[in-house]
Amino acid sequence: MVGFTAWVSAASVAVILPPGLALAWLLARREWRGKSVVETLTALPLVMPPVATGLILLKVLGRRGPVGRWLESMDVEIIFTWKAVLIALSVMSFPLLVRSLRTALEAVPPRLEQVAQTLGARPWKVFLTVTLPLARRGLLAGMVLAFARSLGEFGASITLAGYIAGETGTLALEINQAILMGEDSRALELLGVSALLAFGLVWLSGWLSGSPAATTRARRAASA
């Protein structure tokens, strides 16, 4: 159960990393019409009840939904499978990843990227050799935070995937099931595991991010 939760959480981070990095770069480095709308839509899972987000996904991916009907015609099952867990975790952790990656990219002084461009480096090479290396700690911190969020996800998962022992039973769902079954000792045991994992991952994310004061000093020194 813990192993399933860990690998599906890691898979969700891998799934959202490419689009999250692309969107974070656009938000950090470009101004375009509709940017505020995209920012708002991206942040919605952070402020909406997770069950509401799960219900939206259920309506879209269910057999009567626009995407669900198409998937059913291809004999692809999503609802009440591990794939539903993966989708729920990906959607719920995506805003945190984008926010963290955007902060990390904004901390990279644009002047350094401009210098690389004047030396003849193409935009993709500037991104790979200048931007990413300078933002790597923040990028890793965002990935760890997204992973931690996936580990603790409950509302969207229970709505979209339900609880099926050995199939969709993540750590959070197992805790809920233990409470419903009156297995208090097991619920407390799983709670302890969840709390230790959450503490360790949040601490690691904070350590990778570094203190805000240090980041500000580094940016001022680079732009001086």
Model description:
By secondary structure, this protein is mostly helical. The chain has one domain (about 1-224): MetI-like fold, CATH 1.10.3720. It is built from twelve helices and no strands. It has helices at about 1-30, 35-45, 50-60, 65-75, 80-105, 110-120, 125-135, 135-150, 155-160, 170-180, 185-210, 210-224. The radius of gyration is 20 Å and the shape is globular.
Number of distinct helices? 12
Number of strands: 0
Count of distinct structural domains: 1
- Give me the CATH fold name: MetI-like fold
Beta-strand proportion: under 5%
Percent of residues in helical segments? over 70%
Main sheet, how many strands, which sense, barrel? none
The name of the CATH superfamily reads MetI-like
- Secondary-structure-derived class: mainly alpha
H and E order: HHHHHHHHHHHH
How does CATH name the architecture? Orthogonal Bundle
Give the terminus-to-terminus CA distance.
52 Å
**CATH class bucket:** Mainly Alpha
Computed Rg: 20 Å
Quick one: overall form? globular
Mean pLDDT across all residues, rounded? Answer: 88
Unreliable stretches, pLDDT < 50, 5 or more residues? Answer: 212-224
